[in-house]
Amino acid sequence: MARPISPAVVADGLAAAYGDQLIWRNASFTVNTGEFVAVLGPNGSGKSTLLRLLLGLLPPAAGTLQVLGTRPHRGNAQIGYVPQRRNIDRDLPVRGRDFVHLGIDGDRWGVAMGNAANNHERVAQAIRSVDAQAYADRPIGRLSGGEQQRLLLAQALAGKPQMLLLDEPLASLDLRNQIVIAELVAELARANGLTVLLIAHDINPLLPIVDRVLYVAHGGVAIGKPAEVITTEQLSRLYDAPVEVLHDSHGHMFVVGLEAESAHHDA
Amino acid sequence: MMPEHYLAAAPYFGWDLVRDVQELLRYAFMQHAYEAGTIVALSAGVIGYFVVLRGLSFAAHALSHIGFAGATGAVLLGAAPIVGLLAFTMSAGGVMGALGQRLRGRDVTIGLVMAWSLGLGLLFTALYKGSAGLAIGILFGQIFGITSDEVAVTFVAGSLTVLALVVVYRPLLFATLDEEVAEAKGVPVRGLSIAFMVILAIAVSEAVQVVGVLLIFALIVAPAAIAERFTTRPSRGVLLSAALAVLFTWGGLTVAYYFPYPVGFFITTIAFWSYILARVLSDVIARRAAGRLRPWREEQVRHSP
Fold first, then answer.
1. Calpha distance B84→B216 (Å, rounded)
2. Which of A78, A114, B238, B301 to pair with A179, CA 20 to 30 A apart?
3. Do A72 and A116 share a domain, yes or no?
């Protein structure tokens, strides 16, 4: 008899705010263990804010939130996090491998002692899992966006997490690399039984792999299968404005009529 | 400054290494200079690696200038210069650390504080009515005048800075390279920023004794900047930086023993030309490496789907 699997994330009446500024509220949703969820929504709608709540970097303004069976807290070793891609200085004199190593023991005091060999093997394993052996020893700032993204993903995986929170890992990649990275994440998640929340701008490269989408817009949150949530009716209700979802012959989805809704501050 | 009578007998220099070293360590002032210089260089080299990595070269430079006001002020009040140096640099370092990322791009503000500190130091020197030697000593260093007590103090301060850096090494590296992830992983990013600047303040205050307020770049920034050109491994970078700082200091002290010119000149000269040499060398190495790697990169691009 299969044991009931406890959900990875349970939000109930959750609200997020920076000071007095309410970002969204009344969010009640559940993310199941092992589920791959794409987090969508316009700029500034509070997608990154949701990750900050899950990481315990921002306390909920209202409601309750459970992550992997506990309340969110900073330094949760069960969560692997890749923030929105920063521009890594081209001249940063540090190998990709050292970046990955930080994911294992970067938060420990002192210098590395004792199980160094074991840690090196774990780093090598994480690098192999994202197929980055060829360039892991080059300065990370000199690598392409896709290569950096793989190594940052390896850093998150090196800590052996149960959940991955990825903030726009596909941004500034060409379409081909978006698909490659998205499939890599999906494959790693399947192999390791990881729950994934991945923020994206465009659902299309993710359509073949996501289980559900979580739409953050207009101060609210909606969750469901892509075909259920990304519809003219659902999004129009969520945005409280006329929005239209178009489909092309390949099954790709395009949301139009959002321009006026996009806030221009990034949250 | 080197007292006249030390130069009465022409110093020996030859191919006999043992005799050279005996000659160099013949006088207590030289022994003290090597002892203090080595400790100072070690801590300057180690912290310098993080200064360069964190983009804080200018802030380190400013800290030493702020220290000038503290050192001259302390003398005016009848205290030892190092007391004022530490008091001023540590408080300024604490403030800078608390500002953290907001310090970036504040060159004008930092520069103004720096200029005003020099001005204050000038006033304190004038009020003190002592010899101009005081100000010159603080501005350009006075390693040959260091007493055995001061060597002991330097040893304690130097060991503390190195020890503190060993303790914070990994989280500091994490916070420096990847602040957001480090924060999410529970690394106290802000606390580390403050701690780092306070440790830097102590290292700067020590280094001022050797190269003075104005020449601090030679010991804190130059070795690290050179090291970062030759290794992409942080642990090796730290060790190489420390080794280079010690070499520059030993080289400067040794040459200054034989020639009647200031040690600060020799240390900065060695640092400057080493940096130039390092740039040329590392460019050559990089060009060769790029030549080898080009075919691989193209293959990667074609390969990517």
1. 17
2. A78
3. no
Whether residue A45 is found in the same domain as residue A108: no
DSSP string, A66-105: EETTB---TT-TTEEEEPSPP---TT---BHHHHHHHHHH
Q: Verify that A1 and A63 share a domain, yes or no.
A: yes
- Kindly provide the ipTM of the predicted complex, given to two decimals: 0.89
Task: Enumerate residues 6+ apart whose C-beta is below 8 A from A62.
Answer: A13, A14, A15, A25
Q: Which residues of A touch B232 (CB under 8 A)?
A: 93-95, 98, 137-139
Quickly list H helices, chain A: 47-55, 96-105, 116-129, 145-158, 175-192, 226-229, 232-239
Strands A220-224 and A62-67: unpaired
Q: Do B184 and A138 count as a contact with CB atoms less than 8 A apart?
A: no
Task: Give the C-alpha separation, B179 to B188, whole Å.
Answer: 10
| Same domain? A241 vs A172 | yes
CATH code of the domain containing A64: 3.40.50.300
For residues A180 and B297, give the distance between their C-alpha atoms in angstroms, rounded to a whole number.
18
Mutate to test the interface with A, among B232, B241, B300, B303 (most CBs of A within 10 A): B232
Query: pLDDT per position in chain B (305 positions), as tens?
Result: 445 445 555 677 778 888 888 888 888 899 999 999 999 999 999 999 999 999 999 999 999 999 999 999 999 998 888 899 999 999 999 999 988 777 777 788 888 989 999 999 999 988 888 667 788 888 888 888 888 888 998 899 999 999 999 999 999 999 999 999 999 999 999 999 999 999 999 999 988 888 888 888 899 999 999 999 999 999 999 999 999 999 999 999 999 999 989 999 999 999 999 999 999 999 898 888 777 655 444 444 444 43
pLDDT at A180: 92
| Residue B81 to residue B205: CA distance in whole angstroms | 10
Chain A residues whose CB is inside 8 A of the B229 CB are 93
Alpha-carbon gap, residue A232 to A64, rounded angstroms: 30
Residue in B205, B192, B204 with CA at minimum distance from that of residue B165: B192
Half-sphere exposure for A158 (CA within 13 Å, toward CB): 31
The range of the structural domain enclosing residue A180 comes to 1-78+167-267
Q: Are residues A113 and A153 in the same domain?
A: yes
* pTM recorded for the entire structure: 0.89
Q: What's the CA gap between B107 and B94, in Å, rounded?
A: 18
Q: Clarify whether residues A56 and A123 are in a common domain.
A: no
Whether residue B173 lies within 8 A of chain A, CB to CB, comes out as yes
The last residue of a domain, from among A111, A145, A160: A160
Chain B positions in Cβ-Cβ contact with residue A55 (cut-off 8 Å): 184
Longest CA–CA separation in chain B, Å: 77
Protein fold of B4-303: ABC transporter involved in vitamin B12 uptake, BtuC (1.10.3470)
